[in-house]
Design a protein that fits this description.
This is DUF4169 family protein. The chain is mainly alpha-helical. The chain has one domain. 69% of the residues lie in helices and 0% in strands. It is rod-shaped, with a radius of gyration of 24 Å.
């Protein structure tokens, strides 16, 4: 193989690895946010406060 092909493959591999790293970082951030929300919900339930969510639309009964 020539040097250009090897250099191109290496730079492509580095780009793919960088994208994968960014995806992992974004996923980790989302997981931290989700965990924080869940902890807040548990604290609210323990202290007797109502949840901020409206619940599932399918579970609501008609008021008519």
């Amino acid at each position: 193989m020539n040097d250009k092909t090897e250099t191109g493959q290496q730079s492509r591999k580095q780009a793919i690895e960088a994208q994968a790293k960014l995806r992992r970082e974004r996923a980790a951030e989302k997981l931290r946010e989700n965990l924080s929300k869940r902890k807040q919900q548990v604290r609210a339930r323990r202290s007797g406060q109502a949840d901020e969510t409206n619940g599932l639309p399918a579970a609501k009964m008609d008021e008519s």
